Amino acid sequence: MKKTQLKIVKTAIRLFNKGGVANVRVQDIAVAAGISPGNLTYHYKTKKDLMVAVLQYMKNLQKELFPYPSIVEAPSWLGLVQTYLRFQIQFRFFYRDILEISNLVPESKIQYQKQIESVIAFNKNGIYMSVGKGYMLPEAHDGQYHTLATHAWAILNSWLTVREVLGEKIANINRGIYGLLELNFPYLTEKGKVNYHKIKQQIPELVKSEIDLLEEVG
């Protein structure tokens, strides 16, 4: 991707996050990027072309940030969760405006489906790793932890939208992370409950850095 194209894509992401995909015009992106509308349309003739580039940029960054085939191979589970939250914040327009995006770029439905599947797989790997380390009880029946992993995805997928609609006081990032922890609590062993309290103590610093990031990316 050329320098000007990257500037356009990053500007589009910032404006989509702030105003919503439907409310941002190509002309708005050109002004915010400090280039002429003609220069922008030279690189991306339509808003659809630009959105395709934005989605490809998102996909490439995801591969770069999450190179591990399984969570067991990742250097830090909590660090990986934090990285995912940062990724979600950076591209929150995608999760919030997926219906609008899919109308513009129908192929984005496949990318969204793969996002769902990858997060559920990530959650399941974390659960099975916890079972192996003695933090969580073995699965009581087939499919139990797939359902749990799916519910965890639902929390991750919705907390940013809820926050933007209801505001920071009602739906802040703390509640999203605590919600994930509480979701797992009934399945924890005694050893897992000790680890649960350790993780809770680490959340305030993690939350602080993500709030800073929200202000940074707009």
Can you walk through the features of this model?
- The chain is mainly α and 218 residues long.
- It has two domains: 1-55, Arc Repressor Mutant, subunit A; 66-217, Tetracycline Repressor, domain 2 (Orthogonal Bundle), CATH 1.10.357.10.
- The protein has helices spanning 3-19, 26-33, 37-43, 47-65, 77-90, 92-96, 98-104, 108-132, 144-166, 173-184, 190-217.
- The longest helix has 28 residues, at 190-217.
- The protein is elongated.
- The model has no long low-confidence stretch (mean pLDDT 86).
What descriptors fit this protein?
218 residues; mainly alpha; Arc Repressor Mutant, subunit A; Tetracycline Repressor, domain 2; 2 domains; 11 helices; 76% helix; 0% strand
The domain count comes to 2
Going by helix content, strand content and strand pairing, the class is: mainly alpha
CATH topology of the largest domain: Tetracycline Repressor, domain 2
Annotation, overall tally of beta strands:
0
CATH homologous superfamily name of the largest domain?
Tetracycline Repressor, domain 2
CATH architect. name of the largest domain: Orthogonal Bundle
Order of helices and strands: HHHHHHHHHHH
Mean pLDDT: 86
- Give the low-pLDDT segments: none
The shape is elongated
State the share of residues found in helices, binned by percent: over 70%
- Tell me the major beta sheet: none
